[in-house]
Design brief:
alpha+beta, single chain, 5-stranded mixed beta sheet, 38% helix, 348 residues
Length: 348
Amino acid sequence: MDRAMSAGGRLSNLVRTRITYTGEPYQFALDALKNASSRTPLPDSSGDQALLESQVLSKLGDGGSWSAHPVGVANVRLSPGKPIVVHLDPHVELSDGEDYPVAWHAMDRLLPYSEPGVQVNGVLGLRIAAIRGSDLHLTLAETGSRLIIRGVPGTTWKDYLDERWESLGRAHAPALWRSRFFSDEERQDEQRHPLVRGTERDIAWIGAGLLRRIALFHTASTAYSTRSWITGEDWIFELDTRRDVRLDHDTLLARITDPFWGLPLKVVEHHCTCNDPPLTSDRYMRQCTYELAHREGSRCGIQLRFRWGHAVYGKNARRQLERLGSAPDWLDRVLPQAIQEAHDEDAS
């Protein structure tokens, strides 16, 4: 009996750890671990599947919008032998203050269309494989890749896709996602930008790995704001923590590089300012910068910028996030109410 209880306790700990990485519900994570066909608790993808997942994270993370969770992803669900399911938040607030469904915002960034003579925007080769209720099944043309974007209940994907197609036509920017194969415009874009497309494939293992662990930016970080972009061969994440909240970059670093749960990464360079003298003015911020690379020497890597200081993005960040549906216990951790009120008084 003691052995059974001990085994049950170990499994329960595994489930809770997995949830910190994926954000999955407890029962779902429990079933996934029980049905796993390998000893890897979070299986990773490769090839075209990794490229699809990485491109989705890249497009969702690029921009100055606000949502209840980092990059508008509430959680991901990973089932053995099934496509990854990316659960979207309900709404996003854009930089101009407009409130917009995350599902539509995601498709604005993901769906490929051509600016004639300029470039193809969105994800090259992205196609709609199926629409099933609130699930939009995505694939890359001429591949067996598959990813499911799950909108909130009531999401009307077909209406949006038809409207988007027509609006692009009126703007003389041909939409490309209904073609079964790669379009001529996409082929030409690949040929014009071989280094960019090559880097997208080289860095795909990072983007796919982070998408499958997207909850870490919510569960293992003290940042209230997370942004990302790709520069050269580095995937850069900028995480902002209020000065009144303890900056804890070690937890996130440990989780990302964990040999069992994390990615095959190691810290190769860092500059930490946590022990520097106190800042003398709210005009200044501190930044601790960590460079991570593959343990076996891949040239692509991650740069994590942990910024600590007076709030920069959004004067009323807590109120924005409350309105968008962020969990109260998370807000109390990263933007405590008393701190927000004091900040608002200082800004008035």
